[in-house]
Every structure is written in structure tokens, then in C-alpha cells.
Write the C-alpha cells for this entry.
Amino acid sequence: MLKSALHWLKGTRPGQITFDEIKSWVGKEDAVILEIGANDGTDTKRFAETFPQARIFAFEPDPRAAERWQAQVQSPNVTLVQTAIGNSNGTVTFHQSDGDVQDGPQTGWDLSGSIRAPKDHLKRHPHINFDQTLDVPISTLDRWAEDNNIGEIDFIWADVQGAENDLILGAQKTLSRTRLFYTEYDNREMYEGQWSLQTISENLKDHTLIARWKNDALFQLKSAGKR
């Protein structure tokens, strides 16, 4: 399935999708956008600037990142949801990342935390540790969307650090009405149980893979047609 989805693509693109590209793909001003894994709000601000008339929901379960998010995002069309998104409802163990990386903070590296325990991540990035865990709220995207009367979604940006399977399995109804789904991926098991791009593609039955980058992929709802 992956070969048939990829054969017409012009290889792997450098970097990641740009906000100009997102705007072009979405094609409307009053979009509904979900940023799942918002961290400190850097990308949230770009979404708010690119789509000032959109409804934007940013999800971030790590309280350290959420505190920084609140300090720098003041856009009235953006809502912060301090909840992990996965395949259960209630609470879940969150593995906080810490340490330092090249050109990054000396301590307090909070960009790699996940509801999945680290695996190959510990080998690839030995300067990042996951010594601390905490319980955080978790919801399936289906439950959250139902509780908040969310209908069609125009764009999802998913940066869930190896928990792509949890997100997808808990969002079957919601994804069936999501036009564009952009997700990080890794074909190594950076976190325990992490899906490869092929497995992600096989489980997004309503979507077609339309573009890929080194560690990101863009899927479009089949009923929306090809670009």
C-alpha cells in the first residue's frame, strides 16, 4: 500500500511543510485547525497569524510547555487545551523530557515528552533524558470533538512524539471528517510501540498520502479529491 501511495510523489521534501503551503492546502480563512502537541506556542502563533479568522485549538499536556505557551500566545481565536490526546479517557503517565541538545537549552528540554516511553530515542539523543513522569489528563480526539461540538476539521498538525497510533486509534470518527492530517513520523521505534509511516498510512483508511518530508507526512481525505 505504501508503494502505491508514494510512487507518484517526487521523493522526500527537505525540512517540513511551510505555513504558506498550509494556507494553500486549506484554502479557506475560517478554518478549524487542531495543533496536537503545541509545546511553547511557537507554531501556534504562526497558525494564528496565517489564519486570523480560524478556530484554532492547541493541545499541550506538559505543564512546563503550557506555561510558556500562555506567556506568548494571546490570540483571541486560539484555545489551549491542557490534555494529552490518545486512545483512552482519564489520566495517563506522561514521560517528561529534560537535558540539553546542541543549539538548544542547557536544561529543561521539554520538546520530546510523550505518553509513550522512550526507546531508540535514548540511543539517538543520549543527552536527553526522561527521568521524570507525571499523570496528565488524556482524551480521545473523538470524545473531545463530541464534547465540544466539533464538526468538520480542516487541518490537524500532529506532533505527538511516537504516540501517533494512540491518536489515530482514538480518532476514527473525527479523522473521517478531517480534510488534511499532517503528522510527524519515524521509521525507527523511537518510542515504545511507535508506528512506522507505512503502518500510519495503512490505518488512515479514509486518507491518501500526498506529500512527505524527512520526518513528516501530509494526508488528504479521499473524499476531498486530489490536488
About this structure: The chain has one domain: 2-92+137-159+167-224. The chain has a mean pLDDT of 91.
